[in-house]
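Researcher: Quick test of sequence recovery. Tokens follow.
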């Protein structure tokens, strides 16, 4: 499974990249706003750090024409830019047109297998089902991942399932068990994936014992 980082903070992207397991980046308007920085400056920094793996940048227009215009501008910023459009009817039209132009898309804010089916038919490069936000309203988010993976397998859709709105390590483990293509993960959760108290206790004991060894 590919691992993306879900952030617009360049320090987090640099640190995750240094870990050697980073396959891409996803951003959204809220994450960019959190940086307090100019959008173009943020994108420039991200693309400099990650020039060779997918970087998702989000459009904000509500109509297909606007989404297409914004996507063309975003795609001009780098060859690895993926344009995020919402999982709506207008988004579908934009995906179809952008795919025809060779511009890659990520259908974001997907909350149902039917939305995923339609965006796959339209030719989306990625679909982003938001599992955490479903959990927030007492619907098990990972259930739609199982359904979408199965549907895409049934019909050989090339659209990749990008598990988004990830809140904890269990989401990541389950995404991998279900065969999702990608998981986009906040930096705090990426760090949690490698944490284990027995590893820390073990290191501590080895170091203490090592001090007793004559050298
Ligand atoms: C994905 O591309 C989104 O940026 C993200 O996963 C949203 O997560 P949230 O529901 O925690 O805001």
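Model:
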């Amino acid at each position: 499974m590919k691992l993306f980082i879900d952030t617009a903070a360049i320090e987090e992207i640099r640190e995750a990249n240094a870990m050697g397991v980073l396959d891409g980046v996803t951003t959204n308007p809220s994450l960019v706003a959190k940086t307090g920085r100019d959008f173009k400056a943020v994108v420039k920094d991200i693309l400099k750090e990650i020039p060779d793996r997918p970087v998702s940048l989000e459009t904000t227009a509500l109509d297909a024409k606007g989404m297409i215009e914004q996507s063309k501008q975003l795609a001009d910023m780098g060859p690895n830019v993926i344009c995020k459009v919402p999982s709506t009817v207008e988004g579908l039209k934009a995906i179809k047109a952008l795919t025809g132009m060779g511009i890659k898309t990520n259908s974001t804010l997907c909350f149902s297998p039917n939305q995923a089916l339609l965006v796959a038919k339209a030719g989306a490069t990625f679909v982003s089902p938001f599992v955490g936000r479903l959990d927030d309203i007492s619907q098990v988010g990972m259930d739609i991942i199982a359904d979408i993976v199965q549907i895409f397998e049934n019909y050989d859709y090339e659209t990749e399932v990008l598990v988004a709105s990830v809140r904890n390590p269990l989401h990541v483990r389950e995404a991998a068990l279900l065969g999702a293509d990608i998981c986009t993960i906040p930096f705090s959760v990426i760090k949690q994936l490698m944490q284990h108290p027995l590893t820390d206790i073990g290191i501590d004991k080895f170091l203490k014992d090592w001090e007793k060894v004559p050298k």
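The CA atoms of residues 6 and 54 lie 12 Å apart.
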